[in-house]
Amino acid sequence: MSQNFDIIIVGGGAGGFFTAINIAEKNPKLKIAILERGKEVLTKVRISGGGRCNVTHACFEPNELVKFYPRGEKELRGPFHQFCSGDTIEWFEKHGVELKIEEDGRMFPVSNSSQTIIDCFTSATKKLGIQVLTGQSVQSIYKSETPDGNFWKIETQNGQYNCEKLVLATGSNPKMWEMIQDFGHTIVSPVPSLFTFNIKDSRIKELPGVSAQVSVKVKDTKLASTGPLLVTHWGMSGPAILKLSAWGARILFEKNYQFTIFVNWLNDIDSEDAEKILKELKQEHSKKTVSKKSPFEFPNRLWESLVLASGISEETKWADLSKAQLQNLSNQLTNGQFQVNGKSTFKEEFVTAGGIDLKEINFKTMESKKHENLYFAGEIVNIDAITGGFNFQNAWTSGFIVANAIV
Ligand SMILES: Cc1cc2nc3c(=O)[nH]c(=O)nc-3n(C[C@H](O)[C@H](O)[C@H](O)COP(=O)(O)OP(=O)(O)OC[C@H]3O[C@@H](n4cnc5c(N)ncnc54)[C@H](O)[C@@H]3O)c2cc1C
Q1: What are the sequence ranges of the domains in the chain?
Q2: 27, 304, 386, 388: which one has the fewest Cβ atoms less than 10 Å from its Cβ?
């Protein structure tokens, strides 16, 4: 026996819940169901942001906000004018969840717990009479033309469902993408985004936990970024590296994660200026030991390591530095070459680049251009962002737009 609904949302994640709740609030008469394959819903929300859920980012200008999306920058401009991060804050406030801004702009529930978001969503679905059906892995979807309009027929391993309007919010699920491809959509092949770089190098081996404000470039590409870099036990992480991993998701995949980077530990000071600064330091501190104290705004431990890597012994005084040693040091400081061999997961947040081709979606409604009454929300489409709350913002914005379009 099949069950009929006005609207079915496949996927009980951030995008699916936000869509369902917004539809029901606009029109409580509609019969809505969420079909979720797992035993539990909102599992990614639970683990997100290290268990704190980085809900959005304190960037309130649509034209600025889009710049955090390596894929989707152009397409999200319109949607963010409809529902932006300020609207997210207001929405959660109205639903009893207060958000706070951290120094770097990330926004979390005041409770510091993702459970607050889960409770908010689950109590809203109960109140609004949305049916949340778990253990319903969608196996097939097809359209049947009927005299009263198009009906979507959905089969899970446990049941059959019909609906007038179908919303797919299944995140980065390859099986679902295959299904969508079968009914005419193009899928941009998925590759990981937001990862850290594996680097084995004596210069950083003893320095896990050290961070510095740097600029980084990937050799033989146009990929470059600036920001804090964090040395880890496996290599390098921090915003400067994560940005490269997001913007370079496809290029670095094609390089099989084997590539060379150049790190400028002095951020925006070039090698010529660095050499000038070092010459001045040589004059000023002639009697002092070079390796002892970092003259730059990064930790002594890093300075000492770069000094040694420049062929300068631990005891060498500034006055005794040769021209070649000065040049070596300037080079280590501004153009340090590191070999990347593989990647590691950034545990706070990782996403997939790829998904439904953006050209096949109407961004005023999030409706498919290939099929009427078929909508998409969240990470299922070829949109992803750097870390900071932007990926959830995409789920909230697309969910809101779907709800607006449907009701
Ligand atoms: C560890 C981690 C931490 C993160 N932290 C943050 C953060 O703090 N801030 C941020 O902005 N982003 C974060 N992200 C990214 C964010 O979680 C995703 O961008 C977001 O969850 C996407 O929402 P979605 O609804 O599109 O997909 P999902 O949340 O992945 O939900 C999709 C749902 O669909 C279900 N599903 C899939 N296939 C089927 C099927 N065939 N039938 C039925 N159901 C199906 C899945 O089981 C899942 O529940 C994090 C990601 C990870 C992995």
Answers
A1: 2-191+352-406, 195-345
A2: 27
